Automatic annotation (TrEMBL):
Organism: Dactylosporangium vinaceum
Domain of life where this protein originates: Bacteria
Pfam families: PD40, Peptidase_S9
Protein name according to UniProt: S9 family peptidase
Keywords in alphabetical order: Hydrolase, Protease, Serine protease
Lineage summary: Bacteria, Bacillati, Actinomycetota, Actinomycetes, Micromonosporales
UniProt domain Peptidase S9 prolyl oligopeptidase catalytic: residue ranges: 410-614
Gene3D superfamilies according to UniProt: alpha/beta hydrolase, TolB, C-terminal domain
């Protein structure tokens, strides 16, 4: 894979399933270099495999398909061009054109159907009347009174809160909620008399509660107690309770596990042991069926699909193995999943039968499992992706962000591009990562750099014992927490590496705590104690290897001052080459969702840097 091959990444999302279980619909997204944006269309997939998938829609960006309970309609989100906001459309499944139901100025979120198929609920951000016009530089000043006032990739929160709405098939829109806080992920009760949703108990905190409200906006109640950060609320089939995923509010290195709370009132209780089960990051979802809750669980680099009984007894594993469930749907006894593997970007399955071949032309390099032992004997799990050519190959140690996240069993553009460029890529999940239980994450708290480095170097040493890897030519790279660790390793173990690429990193915890959108609680929870002693920037005078620093100008998660402080410190010292690559118009998620042209430029710059210095 070369950087310009990004458009080959045809990635299917979570499937929708018709009520009779006969037909799945899935959105397939790919980067488009000509328009420098992402395009997506809906595909129709017969679940019995009797016919190949066919393209159902041809909009610029069609996503989030939802079948109506009566099977007559397919709701979905459409953006008519790369700059348009997503609006809600419905398509008659008997034939005919899609019809637009909304025209919200900032777009709408994924919808949920009323049980009688007469209406849909959705969330949409409502802009303040004086903002988000044609000249943002002429807007009035913002008066900020809360710590939690902005979010990376979104911007300021209080002048465009998300509200709940309903819309009929005739396009009659009614607003359900009001107030300054965000309201998200609405879902109807089985009888259609309630909506459940999430909302914070206060603006200045990290807690998110599960709430309910009548579709006409009356009888709003909060079901949880303000101690959890909840997502994905769903009514149980009898309508007597709401299940949801949550972790303790304001605490990092904790699992986002499955909970239930009674509609009539009472304490929430976990349905899975909180220390052992964790909702999959980024694409995680859950849904309810008569036999229990379907829950996507991280497990040693895999993402399983579990069925969890409502009484909290032991879950049943429905999908397992060295792969990752991306999404799922179940109806009429048929289970359809979208699953990514080390050989493809994702395909749609009915049971174990693969129904699609969206990645059929992609020549993936093999992902080989590796287990190392840290000096204390602790196992460190990871992988190697090698070039197809003969070695010895230079080596890149690649470190994930989070830190409570996981690399895993799936095709990964980063590993494929660097291996395609001639490097053996070593990556894994040291202590501090998710997917191995909270006990695996906890050891780094208050000593992030030192503990993480121990495991990462153990993984690297185990990889270097493999044939065809050149231990004299090793580079290190990573983003966010991975950038933190790249700078840390360059300072404390620089003799192990010939060059480094530190990307969107936390380098100085003190300024991060006051400038990041989440730093005001994240730093205290993860680093604790002496911020200076744990900051990679403190040890910049020890860095003697070439370092490329990559950052986005609009990154509010790890603000750009983190990059500038490290760049200035290394440039003034002048002990080794250092360069700063800044991307305009991008936030923290550049490497995953940034402009396709910027993603190509980023890959080219990293390959150029290691080409010069390895």
């Amino acid at each position: 894979m070369k950087p310009v091959d990004l458009p080959q990444m045809r990635t299917p999302g979570a499937p929708a399933l018709s009520p009779d279980g006969a037909t799945a619909v899935v959105a397939v997204t790919r980067p488009d270099l000509d328009t420098d944006a992402y395009t997506a269309q809906l595909w129709l997939v017969p679940t019995d495999g009797s016919r190949p998938p066919t393209q159902l829609t041809r909009g610029w960006h069609d996503s989030a398909p939802r079948f109506s309970p009566d099977g007559r309609w397919l709701a979905f989100l459409r953006r008519d061009d790369p700059k348009a906001k997503a609006q809600l459309f419905v398509l008659p499944m008997a034939g005919g054109e899609a019809r637009k139901l909304t025209d919200e100025p900032l777009g709408v979120g994924a919808p949920d159907w009323a049980p009688d198929s007469s209406a849909l609920a959705f969330s949409a951000r409502v802009p303040h009347e004086s903002r988000y016009g044609t000249d943002p530089d002429a807007e009035p000043a913002r008066r900020l009174t809360e710590l939690f006032n902005r979010v990376d990739g979104l911007g300021f929160r209080r002048d465009r809160p998300a509200q709940l709405f309903t819309v009929t098939l005739d396009g009659d829109v009614a607003r359900v909620t009001d107030g300054p806080d965000d309201h998200g992920d609405p879902r109807y009760s089985p009888d259609g008399t309630w909506l459940t949703f999430t909302a914070p108990p206060s603006a200045d905190g990290t807690a998110v509660d599960v709430c309910v409200i009548r579709p006409d906006g009356s009888e709003r109640r909060t079901l949880t107690d303000g101690t959890l950060a909840a997502v994905l609320p769903r009514f149980t089939p009898d309508g007597d309770a709401v299940v949801f995923a949550a972790a303790p509010a304001g605490v990092v290195l904790r699992n986002e596990t499955l909970w239930s709370v009674p509609l009539a009132g009472g304490p929430a209780r976990p349905l899975l042991p909180p220390a052992d089960f964790h909702l999959a990051m980024l694409t995680g979802d859950l849904d309810v069926h008569p036999d229990g809750v379907l829950f996507m669980n991280e497990q040693r680099g895999a993402v399983q699909l579990l069925q969890v009984p409502f009484d909290g007894s032991a879950p049943t594993v429905l999908v397992d193995g060295p792969r990752q469930v991306v999404g799922f749907a179940q109806a009429a006894g048929v289970l359809v999943t979208t699953v990514a593997t080390p050989a493809d970007w994702g395909e749609v399955y009915a049971g174990e039968r693969r129904l699609t071949a969206f990645s059929r032309d992609f020549p993936a390099l093999e992902q080989v499992e590796l287990t190392a032992a840290a000096p204390d004997g602790y196992p460190v799990h990871g992988w190697i992706v090698r070039p197809a050519t003969e070695g010895p190959h230079p080596v890149l140690l690649m470190i994930h962000g989070g830190p409570y996240a996981q690399y895993g069993w799936r095709l990964f553009d980063e590993a494929q591009v660097y291996a395609g460029g001639g490097y053996a890529v070593v990556y894994g999940n040291p202590r501090g990562s998710s997917g191995y239980g909270e006990a695996h994450g906890e050891p780094i708290r208050g000593n992030v750099g030192e503990v993480s480095a121990t495991d990462l170097l153990a993984l690297l040493d185990a990889a270097l014992k493999e044939p065809g890897l050149d231990a004299s030519r090793v580079g290190v790279l990573g983003g966010s927490h991975g950038g933190f660790m790249t700078t840390w390793l360059a300072a404390h173990h620089g003799h192990r590496f010939r060059a480094a690429v530190s990307e969107r990193a936390v380098n100085a915890i003190d300024s991060f705590s006051g400038s990041s959108d989440i730093g005001w609680y994240f730093a205290d929870s993860l680093y604790t104690g002496d911020f200076a002693a744990q900051s990679p920037l403190t040890y910049a005078d020890r860095i003697d290897i070439p370092m490329l620093i990559i950052h986005s100008e609009q990154d509010w998660r790890c603000p750009v001052e983190q990059a500038y402080r490290l760049f200035v410190a290394l440039k003034r010292r002048n002990a080794a080459p250092v360069e700063l690559l800044l991307f305009p118009g991008e936030g923290h998620e550049l490497s995953r969702t940034g402009r396709p042209s910027h993603r190509v430029q980023r890959f080219d710059a990293i390959l150029d840097w290691f080409g010069r210095h390895l």
